[in-house]
Amino acid sequence: MILSVELLPESDLRDAIGVLVRLVETAGALIIFVGAVWAFARFTATLARDRGQTHGFNRIRLTLGRFLALGLEFQLAGDVLRTAVAPSFTEIGQLAAIAAIRTALNFFLGREIAQERAELAGDPFPGKSTADQGQRGL
Known about the structure:
77% of the residues lie in helices and 0% in strands. The protein is mainly α. The termini are far apart.
């Protein structure tokens, strides 16, 4: 005699995960939206205050980049959740493609943020830690 107890039917689990996916993706979209609104407000304030000078725009780009990177992470988390329950090979392939694209975007965005941060700090060796520079006698 086999006793099988199903705590939560798969259809109910899919519905619950669907709600979670929408919440996580909404959070990601809101993070990106808030970052864009913040960046636009800072951009217009800087433009008006400095009369077209561009020296303050790199800081705005850095902060917007951070918002974008965080928002992309939330979007990727939503994609992973979507395939959490009995994914098909098609869903796994789509997740792999989406994950690769979003990971590449995040990688290049992170690299650009690091370069901008180094330029703002006056670091002649962006991407190298201070320990690395010390070992080389720099």
